[in-house]
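Before the break, one more example. Copy the sequence into your notebook; we will annotate it together after we see the structure.
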Amino acid sequence: MKKKLILGSLILLLVTGAVSFGILKFSYSSGKRAGKLVKLSKKGFLLKTYEGTLDLGSGDALTWNFSIHNDELAQKLQQQNGRMVVLEYRELLWKLFFDTKYDVTNWKNSDPLGGGSQLLCRFVKVLRNDSSVVEKIRPMILQHDASLLDEIRDCQTNQN
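Here is what the structure looks like once it is written out:
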């Protein structure tokens, strides 16, 4: 009788564990969302996850909250705060230890100008070969659009 009770309990425990794992890992839907990364923070008491907000348009009415369960992915995405990104996600059936049912699985940069920042970085790389050209252009950039120098510096740090 003890063996049947122990065997029955073990089978019940395994079935319950398998069902719980399936419920927590099963994707209800998946997709992509693009917008400006507004916030990404690490939250939680025992099981910590990253919780973030993506601005999809203009204001609070068009924001989307998401979770990231992969630390490495979240740390790379954290460096993109304030920039346009495309997030690939899966929607889970239930949320347990995180704020949302949306689990981000991948991301990439999204440039609203259709690759303008990449084009700028390529142009900067060419200009860096001739210091006299750089010295002539720098005062003009400062006079007309000083914030452009920050983007140029970003290109230079990413190329090195």
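The CA atoms of residues 7 and 110 lie 55 Å apart. The chain has two domains: 27-109, 116-159. Try to locate both features in your own notes.
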